[in-house]
Specification:
- By secondary structure, the chain is α+β, with helices and mostly antiparallel strands.
- It has a single domain (2-112), classed as RutC-like (60s Ribosomal Protein L30, Chain: A, 2-Layer Sandwich), CATH 3.30.1330.
- The chain is 27% helix and 34% strand.
- The protein contains 2 helices and 6 strands; from the N terminus they run βββαβαββ.
- The chain has a 6-stranded mixed beta sheet, with helices on one face.
- α2 links the parallel β4 and β5 (90-95).
- α1 runs parallel beside α2.
- The longest helix has 18 residues, at 35-52.
- The chain is globular.
Length: 113
């Protein structure tokens, strides 16, 4: 059985299937901020979405991170490292052109219930 949470016209924010958690890409709600603030915003949204599924960041198994500018890698990591805790998922981070120039970061998450 597949459960779709916060279904939109193009994508669901969160999908639960066979005990797995998969999110769509998450970007900042207010993209005018710097990379640190956008990272905090994205991670806060991720935690809210996980809570809707009865999960937490401890349930995460993998994160995919896209940065608009890889020179912001260290600043993003400073926020991420403070957030991730002592059970970090596997992670990949690559540079990519995002949907609009204002977005500095996008994160997609995967986990297990």
């Amino acid at each position: 059985m597949i459960e779709r949470i916060n279904v939109g016209p193009r994508a669901s924010q969160l999908v639960l299937v066979d005990g797995r958690i998969e999110t769509s890409g998450i970007v900042a709600l207010t993209p005018r901020h710097d990379i640190a603030e956008q990272t905090r915003c994205v991670l806060a949204q991720l935690e809210q979405w996980l809570a809707q599924a009865g999960a937490s960041k401890a349930n995460l198994t993998r994160l995919q991170i896209w940065l608009a500018d890889m020179s912001e890698f260290a600043a993003m990591n400073e926020v991420y490292d403070a957030w991730v805790g002592d059970q970090p998922p596997v992670r990949a981070c690559v540079g990519a052109a995002l949907a609009t120039p204002q977005y500095r970061i996008e994160i997609q998450a995967f986990g297990q219930l």
